[in-house]
UniProtKB/TrEMBL annotation:
Keywords: Chromatin regulator, Chromosome, Hydroxylation, Repeat. This is RCC1 domain-containing protein 1. It comes from the Eukaryota. It comes from Zalophus californianus. Pfam families: RCC1.
Length: 383
């Protein structure tokens, strides 16, 4: 898998199931706190968080679960958490030719037998990179970049040979793929504009984002129903659903202090009891509402001060971006503290997380769960 940078990890946001997120006290952490790692001095390689549990992978090959799902296992190269499925990439258990992909029920505590396994043969890992080295990618993209994992059957989904994937991200209903040339492809449901093709239609197969052709991208991120990509020059492009300001565009739900009214047939999100149906209220006396609910085309977003971005991650309805100078900006839905700003719930514009500035820390990576955020940072000046 692609190596996450070394550093100390911090967490903030929803921890109602006891996720290893900062102190873990109460239902939420509103300001970044050092991550409670599995074992003293554990060197965390990757954090993958779903709604109710978190998977932490160490460089020693240990995966540790916390929250509604718990348990641990060794010999792991990578792990990817979703509510429906926990996927781990482990060293082969037998005399097979390659590592084994395992799909587990999150509540299994990684005990017994997995729901499904697939051995990755050397050909699947590929020798297509420079110098004949196998391509690397984090789950749900598989080593070799020729297939990916889905939380719904079929779990193993091959990619067309012409798609030379570098990164793949899954949202609630859609997928984004970044290829070796920096082009972006999307597919899946498009009813919230999250595919970026200018329509609300579904796309069953990967389709090139024509609006971004000629603009090589370095990063992609998929939220619940929105999408983000970062260009090689540090520009941010964002599109999809803006219900909570996750596109950094004006939204009625924030202007009305988050008041919503239920309507059948509208977008659903997760809540503690299951699906939640929400829709913002209409304008008074039929007047046009001064907000943007959907943005079906990629739109350029400027960070304060013209900062360049290098990394991005999306939660269900919030967005986080790391700048070239190691600062973290967040915006969108923040009810549980997932934005990292004390005294703030939701934002429809990027705001710098001052904790890392005050602590003289340089952010190197960010990984959003549905309702929380994990950050890797080092002391400024540290190589």
């Amino acid at each position: 898998m692609a190596e996450e940078p070394r550093g100390s990890w911090f967490g903030f946001g929803f921890c109602g199931f006891g996720q290893a997120l900062g102190s873990g006290r109460g239902r939420q952490v509103h300001s970044p706190e050092p991550l409670r790692t599995p074992g003293a001095g554990a060197d965390v390689r990757r954090v993958s968080a779903s709604w109710s549990y978190t998977a932490v992978v160490t460089r020693g090959g240990q995966v540790q679960l916390s929250g509604a799902a718990d348990g641990a296992a060794g010999g792991c190269r990578d792990a990817w958490a979703s509510e429906a499925l926990l996927v781990v990439l482990r060293a082969g258990r037998g005399l097979g030719p390659g590592p084994e992909l395992q799909a587990w029920a999150p509540g299994s505590a990684l005990r017994g037998e997995p729901l499904w396994t697939h051995t990755l043969v050397p050909e699947a890992e590929g020798a297509d990179g420079a110098g004949g080295e196998a391509q690397a990618g984090a789950l749900p993209l598989l080593p070799g970049a020729r297939a990916y994992v889905s939380p719904r059957p079929p779990f193993y989904r091959p990619l067309a040979p012409e798609l030379r994937a570098r990164r793949l991200e899954l949202g609630a209903e859609h997928a984004l793929l970044l290829d070796e040339a920096g082009q972006v492809f999307s597919w899946g449901q498009g009813r919230h504009g999250q595919l970026g093709h200018g329509t609300l239609e579904a796309q069953p197969e990967p389709r090139l984002l024509e609006a971004l052709q000629g603009l090589p991208m370095a990063e992609v991120a998929a939220g619940g129903w929105h999408s983000v990509c970062v260009s090689e020059t540090g520009d941010i492009y964002i599109w999809g659903w803006n219900e909570s300001g996750q596109l950094a565009l004006p939204t009625r739900s924030l202007s009305e202090d988050g008041k919503t009214v239920a309507r059948e047939g509208e977008a659903s999100g997760l809540n503690e009891g299951g699906p939640e149906v929400r829709r913002t209220a209409g304008g008074e006396e039929g007047a046009p509402a001064p907000f943007i609910a959907l943005q079906p085309f990629p739109a350029l977003l400027d960070l304060p001060g013209g900062a360049d971005a290098v990394k991005a991650s999306c939660g269900s309805r919030h967005t986080a971006v790391v700048t070239r100078t190691g600062e973290l900006y967040t915006w969108g839905w923040g009810k549980y503290g997932q934005l990292g700003h004390k005294g703030t719930t939701s934002l429809d514009r990027p705001r710098r997380v001052e904790y890392f500035v005050d602590k003289q820390l340089q952010v190197r990576a960010v990984s959003c769960g549905l309702w929380n955020t994990y950050v890797c940072a080092v002391e400024r000046g540290e190589s």
